[in-house]
Amino acid sequence: MAIRAEKELNPYFEMIGLLYDSVHSESMEEMWKRSARDRGINPEELAKKIGPVTKKYHAVFQKYMTGRDMEDFEFFFFHEEEEFILFFQSVCGKHPEWFETELKDSQKEEIQLAVIQEISETEKFSESPELEQMIDVLEKAGYGGALGWKFLQLLQSPVEKMRNLSEIIRVNFPAFEKAEGAVEKQLEKLIEDFQKGVEKDYLVAKISGEAAAFPTLVCPGAEIISSAPDSTTAYIGLFVKDIYKMLEKGRNTRKHLLSALKALGDGSKFEILQLLQISPRYNLEIAEKLKLSAPTVSHHMSVLLENGLVDVKKRDGKVYYTLSKEKLSEITEVLTDIFSLRQ
User: Fold this and answer.
1) What percent of the chain has pLDDT over 90?
2) Does residue 252 have a pLDDT over 60?
């Protein structure tokens, strides 16, 4: 495994996330509380660790941000589907050239291919697909309804949409620089720690092959892995290691056991584990088999991974999830001891 650990935040990944959070700040706070509870972590402890840096980062950006009345600001940022913005953070983070040079009409197919490839993950496209094929790719990835319609709007007018997004980002670059500068000292130390642990302490280290890993502060506790057939890109929250420490601290406690049992008690997560009992599967296979959206499966897998119930490996350009029978046996043993079930 060869991981290229980047030394700086990806400005496009960060700014798209910051712009979205500026509109949804209340829901983001609730999401953090829910995420902590799902993982068996004390929400107050998590907030105390992450809060000071991230709140300052967001507050300074929001103080100087602009452009809410610009063309397509509402299209990209005034919606409730978090998976939509996470998708654009990932795809735009891979294509800084879209924002650093003026987009030409001739780049329509280039943008369409980049978007479709990111959605599909596994199928390789050599030319832009027709409308019916685009719809088929979206449906297979679980992007239906209003979310699927938004993707179709983008795919039908990719240059216009990306030009407008590029302009929104351009006028907000000063706000991002001020936000980054406001937490410069803390950020320097966090990135230093990130670089030291990237080849052993994070999920991307379990995936064979080449990978680029970016630190992220806008998603401080997330590990977002985008794996195309020929490349892997990861965005690793600068507080992920702290969350792992909190999880490890309670790994043998009743609270952690309850967290794992809560994951097992969720119908969709339990069905995923049953599916993995048969054979390893990648994200879109699970989504298609259980009729879930790909982002929904990603959320379930994040909880299952952090509770040790599944593991990951990369094969043939795909990230496969496998059932951790060892962890299930451990849970069974703990329950047996707690309830004195041994004969």
Assistant:
1) 45
2) no
Question: Rounded mean pLDDT of the chain?
Answer: 87
Those residues with Cβ within 8 angstroms of residue 95's Cβ, 6 or more apart along the chain or in another chain: 114
The pLDDT value recorded for residue 256 is: 74
Cα gap 53→59, rounded to integer Å: 10
Report the distance separating Cα 269 and Cα 155, nearest Å: 32
pLDDT per position as a tens digit, 239-248: 988 888 887 7
Residues in the chain: 343
More confidently predicted of 117 and 231? 117
- Band of residue 202 on the pLDDT scale cut at 50, 70, 90: confident
R_g of the chain computed on alpha carbons: 20
- For the chain, the farthest-separated pair of C-alpha atoms sits apart, in whole angstroms, at 74
The answer to whether the CB of 227 falls within 8 A of the CB of 317 is yes
Cβ atoms of residues 187 and 180 within 8 Å? yes
Read off the tokens for 140. Answer: 């297979």
Amino acid present at 298: S
Q: How confident is the model at residue 80 (pLDDT cuts 50, 70, 90)?
A: confident
Which two tokens mark 199? 């080849």
